């Protein structure tokens, strides 16, 4: 039942954000952050998902928080959806064993019970290195090179600004993400 409520809540929130145009506006802004280079966008989402997973909620919640926005921005930039999904998933997994994340804390506690304490940073490093390697291979095989050849997508970036309704929606999403990470609110 908890999973159903979580999926329903996340879907409803991002459906509202999509319907009022907030996801599209945020996607335009992320393209501006990449200066119109669609080839940088998958790397941006890998990094964002990794940082999100590192600081608390772990890979599953980080992916649930980042993926809807990443897919919208990727579509807007003409990036392959499969590449964006791989980058978000691998980014979240790269940060998953951080000593500060929920999963990392559990793994480190279990390692300490087995007499393996003091290895939390090496566990995190090698786990992250494996996912970085997979992300590099995915980038090369599933469309990253084609994005370089495509060049700038600055012609696709509209100069319109984020409207107040978009800002309110994005603030609600940011408050929700902060609540999940900092206050340990349930995701749903």
Sum up the overall morphology in one term: globular
Element order, helices and strands? HHHHHHHHH
Largest sheet: none
Q: Please report the total strand number as a whole number.
A: 0
Derived structural class: mainly alpha
The average pLDDT is 80
Q: List low-pLDDT spans.
A: none
Strand content: under 5%
Brief sketch in words of this structure:
With 188 residues, this protein is mainly α. Helices cover 74% and strands 0% of the residues. It has helices at residues 2-19, 22-33, 41-54, 58-77, 81-95, 102-113, 120-141, 144-150, 164-182.
Q: Which key terms come to mind for this protein?
A:
188 residues, 9 helices, 74% helix
Tell me what the structure shows:
The protein has 188 residues and is an all-alpha fold. It has a domain at 39-66 and 79-152. Helix content is 74%, strand content 0%. The protein is built from nine helices and no strands. The protein has helices at residues 2-19, 22-33, 41-54, 58-77, 81-95, 102-113, 120-141, 144-150, 164-182. Helix 2 (22-33) packs across helix 9 and helix 4 packs antiparallel against helix 5. The protein is globular, with a radius of gyration of 18 Å. The model has no long low-confidence stretch (mean pLDDT 80).
Explain the layout of strands and helices.
Layout: H1 2-19, H2 22-33, H3 41-54, H4 58-77, H5 81-95, H6 102-113, H7 120-141, H8 144-150, H9 164-182
């Amino acid at each position: 039942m908890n999973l159903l409520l979580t999926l329903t809540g996340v879907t409803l929130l991002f459906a509202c954000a999509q319907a009022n145009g907030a996801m599209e506006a945020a996607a335009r802004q992320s393209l501006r952050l990449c200066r119109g280079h669609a080839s940088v966008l998958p790397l941006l989402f890998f990094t964002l998902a990794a940082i999100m997973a590192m600081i608390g909620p772990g890979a599953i919640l980080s992916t649930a928080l980042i993926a809807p926005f990443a897919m919208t921005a990727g579509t807007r930039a003409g990036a392959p959806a499969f590449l964006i999904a791989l980058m978000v998933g691998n980014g979240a997994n790269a940060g998953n064993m951080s000593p500060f994340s929920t999963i990392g804390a559990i793994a480190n506690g279990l390692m300490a019970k087995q007499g393996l304490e003091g290895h939390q940073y090496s566990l995190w490093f090698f786990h992250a290195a494996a996912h970085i390697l997979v992300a590099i291979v995915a980038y090369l095989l599933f469309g990253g090179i084609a994005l370089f050849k495509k060049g700038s997508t600055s012609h696709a970036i509209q100069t319109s600004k984020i409207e107040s309704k978009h800002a309110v929606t994005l603030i609600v999403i940011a408050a929700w993400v902060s609540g999940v990470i900092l206050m340990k609110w349930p995701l749903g």
